[in-house]
Amino acid sequence: MEVKIIPCLNDNYSYLILDKNKKNACVIDPSESMPIIEIIEKNKLNLKYILNTHHHYDHVGGNKELKKKYGSKVVGFNNDKDRIPEIDILVKNNQIWKDENFEAKIYHIPGHTLGHIAFHFFKEKKIFTGDTLFSLGCGRIFEGTYEQMFNSLNKIKKLPKDTEIYCGHEYTLQNANFCLANDSDNSKLKEKIIKLKKILNNNLPSVPTILADEIECNVFLKAKDLESFTKLRDLKDNF
Ligand code: ZN
Ligand code: FE
Predict the structure, then answer these.
(1) Rounded distance from Cα 181 to ligand 1 centre (Å)
(2) What is the residue extent of each domain of the chain?
(3) Which residues are paired to 25 by β-bridges?
(4) Cβ 180 vs Cβ 196: under 8 Å
(5) Phi, then psi, of 85 in degrees rounded to 5
């Protein structure tokens, strides 16, 4: 499975995943249709599925256009069927969603929104976390509770340490500054920031990140309990 990272809008990432024959594709969270269409046309791909992590416009903005153009099926969380445009296939927590070479486990990870899910391609050790887990950060809590978000992050934390994390936004540098302000003695974090700055200076994406790095460097994953997580999340909102 190959993953193409597609920058969209200001700081969003959509992802195109290709099967082993590099013919069939799925797009994860198409913020807008044009950048996706460009790559599909250039590589003569068959866009079979649109996978949505949650209903926010910057994650579903391309659904309608892409479905119309390619006849793709839209996959989203069953409880969000009224909020995900053009939804066709409803998935549930802990379900395996599978089609030919694509196989992902669905995790319901509420907090940012109540219906947020992640797609875990467990054989390839890749997870698409939308706006729940970012590199060195986590999403704002819009609809859920702090406890839901804390539990959602802990679910992801239990995956194999070499899992690659593909998140919804390029927020890594701002997140890094927040982590540093709250965890200033973390030498692993400092190393990661040096690497990060090189990557960003070359106009490259900071994703994917590896779960092991996040566990060591991301203050939200390092939070020991709900109370310290809540404090950090509040501080970040005003950082
Ligand atoms: Zn969002
Ligand atoms: Fe977003």
Answers:
(1) 25
(2) 2-237
(3) 18, 47
(4) no
(5) -60, 135
- pLDDT tens per residue, range 189-238: 999 999 999 999 999 999 999 999 999 999 999 999 999 999 999 999 99
- Residue type, position 149, single letter: M
58 given a catalytic annotation = yes
Amino acid at 237: D
> What spacing in Å lies between the alpha carbon of 140 and ligand 2's midpoint?
10
Catalytic choice (19, 29, 54, 55): 54
User: 185-190: long-range contacts at Cβ-Cβ below 8 A with a sequence spacing of 24 or more?
Assistant: 186/216, 186/217, 188/213, 188/216, 188/217, 189/216, 189/217
Which ligand approaches the C-alpha of residue 169 most closely?
A: 2
CATH 3.60.15.10 corresponds to the domain 2-237: yes
100: exposed, middle or buried (Cβ count in 10 Å: 0-12, 13-18, 19+): exposed
Mean pLDDT, all residues of the chain: 98
CA 112 to CA 58: how far, in whole Å? 14
Q: Which pTM was predicted?
A: 0.98
